[in-house]
Amino acid sequence: MKPLSLLLSLSTLFLVLLYNPQLQTLAKNQETPNSELAILIKIKSFLDPEGQTLTSWSPNATTYCDGSFEGVACNGLGQVMNISLQGKGLLGQIPPEIGQLKNLSGLYLHFNGLHGEIPKEIAELTQLTELYLNVNNLSGQIPQELEKMENVQVLQLCYNQLSGSLPTQLGSLKKLNVLALQYNQLTGAIPATLGNLETLQRLDLSFNRLFGSIPMKIADAPLLQVLDVRNNTLSGNVPLVLKKLDEGFQYANNTELCGSGFADLKICNASFGPEAPSKPEPYGPQSKGLTPKAIPQSAYVTRDLSKSKSKSTNSGLAAILGAILTTMLLVAGIFTFIWYRQRKQRIGAAFESSDSRISTDQFQVNETANRRSASPLISLEYSTGWDPMSKGQTRSGFLQEIPESYVFNVDDVESATQFFSDSNLLGKSSFSATYRGILRDGSIVAIKRIAKTSCVSDETEFLKGLKILTSLKHENLLRLRGFCCSKGRGECFLIYDYVAKGNLLQYLDAKVKTGPGYVLDWSTRFSIIKGIAKGIEYIHAIKEKKPDLVHQNISAEKVLIDHHYTPLLSGSGLHKLLADDIIFSTLKASAAMGYLAPEYTITGRFTDKSDIYAFGVLVFQIISGKTRIGSSIRQSAELGKFEDFVDTNLDGKFTELEAVLLGKIALLCTHECANSRPAIRTVVPELSSVGSSR
Ligand SMILES: *[C@@H]1O[C@H](CO)[C@@H](O)[C@H](O)[C@H]1NC(C)=O
Ligand SMILES: *[C@@H]1O[C@H](CO)[C@@H](O)[C@H](O)[C@H]1NC(C)=O
Ligand SMILES: *[C@@H]1O[C@H](CO)[C@@H](O)[C@H](O)[C@H]1NC(C)=O
Ligand SMILES: *[C@@H]1O[C@H](CO)[C@@H](O)[C@H](O)[C@H]1NC(C)=O
Ligand SMILES: *[C@@H]1O[C@H](CO)[C@@H](O)[C@H](O)[C@H]1NC(C)=O
Ligand SMILES: *[C@@H]1O[C@H](CO)[C@@H](O)[C@H](O)[C@H]1NC(C)=O
Ligand SMILES: *[C@@H]1O[C@H](CO)[C@@H](O)[C@H](O)[C@H]1NC(C)=O
Asked: Which fold has domain 357-498?
């Protein structure tokens, strides 16, 4: 070998080392083999540069799998499996090191303020099934490397500042169910390759800057239910086959779209017809036979160049050695550059295969193989609703009786609650969690999230229950706005009006006399009792027609208080949706609080008289201001010694007549013998007969 060619080889080798990020990371990996703790700490320093949020991620920890690291969950082998940091106010960036957590299956970083680019190294997470980066401030392009994420099912990148075009490579994510890219600044065309996705159900590209026509091939995706391309600048003929999606296909605010068969679109000029497309469909039907890699992508050429430029500037070593080697490089530069550009592809491919990733060739084979065997295994469906009820489908049976306005979709619920961000959590019970949320129309709601396993298993029963729930309307019942069930998430959501002043339990045992409503005044208490009675009366009146409708779970916690201190009974009819074991566990709780009528232990049945019993306990609680109703309170009421059972926090400011009446009602309602308890319809007029105009 001549010295010059030796020099050339050395310099090229050096350049390859310098320029090839994969080699660099490989070297780094060998220094700190397998230390996921170190990786996590590194990631923390990027996600949370100020160190204000992830304080539990301590570099001195001995383990991160025991729950001590907020949001980190491990598999049985002590490898990081999930990172759930949604809505934590993270303001940093996503570091390339994330790609080193090889066993990560879920990454949930949505609803933060993360900025910077999505590192292409994230694509090394080949076990990842769910990637939620939505609602951040991420910019730059969607890395085409994402094609390596062969297990990804949900890709949520919406509501960011992503730009550039959609990588055609996304068409090789063969398990993808949901691709949500709305509200970015994406430009370019819709890749027809997305039509290859056998499992794709939802594709949301709305509110971007996409142009070109809607590729006909997109309709090939066999499970596609939702295609949303609203507010782009798409043009040309809308493929008629998309009509099969019904309302799942949304295309408004694309002024240049045309087509026959869609009522609100103008008919295309002849030149727009499929026979003679005036604008070629980019990556359209013509490219059907080609693999994604073979499709020209001008956007990525420029991108690669800018990438390698920045790599060279951010390396200090490069600067020093670069100066020494300047002369040599000047001589060898041009040759080397050409050589490098040619080699880069090959080296990259070699690395992918030796790294047990899919090489280019394998990829092609796999893809065709997978086209043939449509995978029946959809572990995560993610439909607009619970399948039988989704808006696009024909509604039959009970569903026809449920007004459509009650049917929400998962997106509504997710965006309302900022993806169930912890900061919106209002409360948790044994079977549900309740979140505050803001609907698109600006109204504030409380969303109750119930695991499907907590619901009755029989769908017909469930739908019947929903029908009852939607039919209940009274000024003293919490209003149900709607519901949504997602088979994929395995959850149902009940959407209620949000009630500002919390529940009655929060006003019991109150110690603070001043401040916003801690010790309720007498007339408020009286009107609250009256309101509760009216709510129960309403339910029991329906019961005449539907014998098994009683509330079953009346308690101070179930009485919500609105701005005007009107009580709203919540949870009415809810037991109709819940599985038996869940109902029993709520019963246990209500027994512990003293609301359970004594005969229940014998009969095991709920009647309107058991509701009355709970109401009586509630009346005692409200007038005494105490959670626990001991026998002394009862005795005082029996003896008419109201000064002993009326809340002393009132400082004697109450109406004796009303106190006597309430004491009497509470006693009667909590009578040991169910038959001796009054019906609520006789209680309501009695309450109305006295004083307070409220
Ligand atoms: C970790 O240990 C070092 C030295 O023992 C100590 O200075 C540091 O404060 C510790 N850091 C944390 C977060 O506990
Ligand atoms: C990771 O998240 C998925 C999806 O939420 C969940 O099914 C799985 O149980 C989680 N794994 C661990 C170890 O928490
Ligand atoms: C974790 O990841 C490594 C590297 O990808 C893989 O070999 C191993 O099987 C994974 N372990 C589990 C439990 O998935
Ligand atoms: C997002 O980034 C833009 C600039 O890139 C900045 O103006 C804006 O304030 C950021 N938004 C948030 C929520 O951080
Ligand atoms: C939707 O597009 C129209 C123009 O077609 C624009 O005026 C409007 O602001 C866009 N809406 C949103 C929410 O971006
Ligand atoms: C279309 O754009 C207009 C504003 O130009 C906006 O009011 C309307 O809501 C948009 N329609 C849809 C379906 O996004
Ligand atoms: C159809 O052609 C006419 C005349 O050339 C033109 O004015 C009109 O904008 C065209 N329509 C569409 C949808 O391009």
From this structure: Phosphorylase Kinase; domain 1 (3.30.200)
For residue 258, which atom of ligand 7 is closest to its CA? Answer: 13
- The Cα–Cα gap between 609 and 314 comes to 77
Query: What pTM was computed for the model?
Result: 0.49
Residue 179 carries which DSSP code? E
- d(CA 414, CA 11) in angstroms, rounded, equals 54
For residue 48 the two structure tokens come to 């949370």
What ligand 4 atom has the least distance to the C-alpha of 91? 14
Element (H, E) at 73: strand 72-74
Give the pLDDT of residue 42: 94
Angle at 301 (CA atoms; ends 296, 306), nearest 5 degrees: 165
Task: Kindly report the length of the chain.
Answer: 694
**C-alpha distances out from residue 460 to 295, 387, 395, 457, 638, Å:** 50, 14, 13, 9, 48
Phi then psi dihedrals of residue 636, to 5 deg: -60, -40
At residue 515 the predicted structure's pLDDT band, cuts being 50, 70 and 90, is: low
Domain ranges of the chain: 34-300, 357-498, 501-694
Averaged pLDDT for residues 32-46: 83
Answer CATH for 501-694 from 1.10.510.10, 3.30.450.20, 2.60.40.10, 3.40.30.10: 1.10.510.10
Nearest protein Cα to ligand 4, atom 4: 137
Q: What is the DSSP letter of 266?
A: B
253 lines ligand 5 (CB under 6 A): yes
What band does 568 get if pLDDT is binned at 50, 70 and 90? Answer: very high
- pLDDT bin (cut points 50, 70, 90) of residue 302 is very low
72, amino acid identity: V
The answer, yes or no, to whether residue 332 has pLDDT greater than 50, is: no
In one-letter notation, the amino acid at residue 611 is D
Task: Residue 615: name the closest of 544, 530, 538 by CA.
Answer: 530
Token output for 577: 């949706």
Percent of the chain with pLDDT over 90: 38
Cα–Cα separations (whole angstroms), residue 343 to 15, 20, 363, 466, 523: 12, 11, 20, 63, 85
C-alpha to C-alpha distance for 684 and 160, rounded to whole angstroms: 55
Residues 6+ apart with CB under 8 A from 565: 501, 517, 520, 524, 527, 528
Range with lowest mean pLDDT among 141-150, 363-372, 382-391 = 363-372
**Nearest protein CA to atom 2 of ligand 1, as residue:** 60
What number does the ligand 5 atom closest to the CA of 254 have? 5
| Listed ranges 108-117, 329-338, 526-535; the one with the highest mean pLDDT | 526-535
Residue located nearest, by CA, to atom 3 of ligand 2: 106
Compute the distance from residue 447 Cα to the ligand 3 centre, in Å: 37
Q: Is the pLDDT of residue 218 over 90?
A: yes
Average pLDDT, the chain: 76
CA dist 81 → 36, 101, 103, 140, 154 (Å): 11, 8, 6, 27, 16
User: Which of these ranges, 368-382, 440-454, 608-622, has the smallest mean pLDDT?
Assistant: 368-382
Q: How much is the average pLDDT of 273-294?
A: 35
- Strands laid side by side in the 226-228 sheet: 72-74, 80-84, 106-108, 130-132, 154-156, 178-180, 202-204, 226-228, 249-250
Q: Which CATH superfamily is domain 34-300 in?
A: Ribonuclease Inhibitor (3.80.10.10)
Cβ proximity of 668 and 676 under 8 Å: yes
Return the structure tokens found at 546.
Answer: 């539907």
pLDDT band at 15 (very low <50, low <70, confident <90, very high): very low
Cα(424)–Cα(420) distance, integer angstroms: 7
